[in-house]
């Protein structure tokens, strides 16, 4: 369908007949992201709230379909890339974001640490350096004032506001550490999310890191005690590093809870659809 035909379709979006609109909507959604600039152009040129509202909904549906496709592809072929998984989730709320800004911020933090990193540093010293740059110099911290805010789950917003929840903080921490060849990975601890320092990938973690508490170092006994308080077993599922897929699933579950608490059933249902992709 060429531009002229698309413009003709879009010009009919003010038709009051709901059946005609549904047919137009489906045709435009089928066109995919390529039609979005024309829709935005039309939105800006009209002052009629009916077509404006319809255009907004059509754009959102097209963008959501794209996120579904991106997540399916990530699950099949690219789940080793945690940052890409986080950016796909980020696109749900911020589809037009320049994602290079996220990579740039992470690269700057990595460089700040790399300049101070010494070959003979032991694991504790490396973590103290990470903590100093990420939490003290950059100012990343837990969002204790608004723990269930949906923004805590969108990586670019966390880097922008420097406030996040345990899983978003841990993801950023792990991404930076891994780029520096420091073996730190996320652990899917119930009711919390922490990082583990894996000096030996085939053994138990050397220690754990509580990023929500500015990088506090925790022992295995600390984790076992926490699990006992929850009446849960000290199984590998809760004490060993988890997959990137498990991380993104937990990010999505956090978002579902956040949108439930915010009273936004539409967003909750859409995030549930994304979660089902990874659980299928």
Helix content, binned percent: 55-70%
Shape descriptor reads elongated
| H/E topology pattern | HHHHHHHEHEHEEEEHHHH
The number of domains is 2
As a percent range, the share of strand residues is: 5-15%
Overall mean pLDDT: 95
In angstroms, what separates the terminal alpha carbons? Answer: 34 Å
Strand order of the largest sheet: 3-4-5-6
Can you count the helices? 13
Summarize, please.
Helices cover 61% and strands 7% of the residues.
Structure report:
By secondary structure, the protein is an alpha+beta fold. It has 2 domains: about 5-80, no CATH class; about 80-280, no CATH class. It has 13 helices and 6 strands. The protein has a 4-stranded antiparallel sheet with strand order 3-4-5-6. Strands 1-2 form a two-stranded parallel sheet. The model has no long low-confidence stretch (mean pLDDT about 95).
Keywords:
4-stranded antiparallel β-sheet; Protein SirB1 N-terminal domain-containing protein; single chain; 6 strands; two-stranded parallel sheet; 61% helix; alpha+beta; 280 residues; SirB1_N
Strand-helix topology:
Blueprint: H1 3-10, H2 18-31, H3 36-45, H4 49-78, H5 82-93, H6 100-114, H7 123-137, E1 141-142, H8 155-161, E2 163-164, H9 166-179, E3 184-187, E4 194-197, E5 207-210, E6 216-218, H10 220-229, H11 236-239, H12 244-261, H13 265-279
Parallel strand pairs: 1-2
Antiparallel strand pairs: 3-4, 4-5, 5-6
């Amino acid at each position: 369908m060429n531009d002229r035909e698309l413009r003709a379709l879009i010009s009919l979006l003010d038709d009051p007949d709901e059946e005609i609109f549904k047919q137009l909507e489906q045709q435009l959604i089928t066109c995919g992201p390529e039609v979005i600039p024309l829709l935005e152009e039309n939105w800006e040129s009209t002052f009629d709230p009916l077509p404006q509202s319809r255009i907004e909904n059509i754009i959102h549906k097209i963008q959501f379909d794209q996120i579904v496709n991106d997540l399916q592809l990530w699950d099949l072929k690219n789940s080793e890339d945690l940052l890409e998984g986080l950016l796909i989730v980020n696109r749900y709320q911020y589809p037009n974001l320049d994602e290079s800004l996220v990579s740039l911020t992470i690269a700057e933090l990595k460089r700040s640490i790399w300049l101070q990193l010494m070959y003979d540093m032991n694991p504790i010293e490396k973590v103290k350096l990470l903590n100093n740059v990420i939490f003290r110099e950059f100012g990343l911290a837990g969002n204790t004032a608004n723990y269930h805010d949906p923004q805590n789950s969108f990586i670019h917003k966390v880097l922008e506001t420097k406030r996040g929840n345990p899983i978003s903080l841990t993801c950023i921490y792990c991404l930076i550490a891994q780029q520096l060849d420091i073996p730190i990975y996320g652990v899917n601890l119930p009711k919390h999310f922490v990082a583990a320092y894996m000096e030996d990938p085939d053994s138990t973690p050397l220690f754990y890191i509580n990023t929500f508490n500015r990088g506090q170092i925790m022992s295995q006994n600390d984790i076992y005690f926490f699990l006992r308080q929850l009446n849960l077993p000290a199984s590998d599922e809760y004490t060993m590093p988890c997959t990137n897929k498990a991380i993104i699933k937990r990010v999505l579950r956090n978002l579902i809870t956040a949108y439930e608490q915010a009273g936004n059933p539409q967003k909750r249902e859409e995030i549930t659809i994304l979660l089902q992709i990874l659980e299928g």
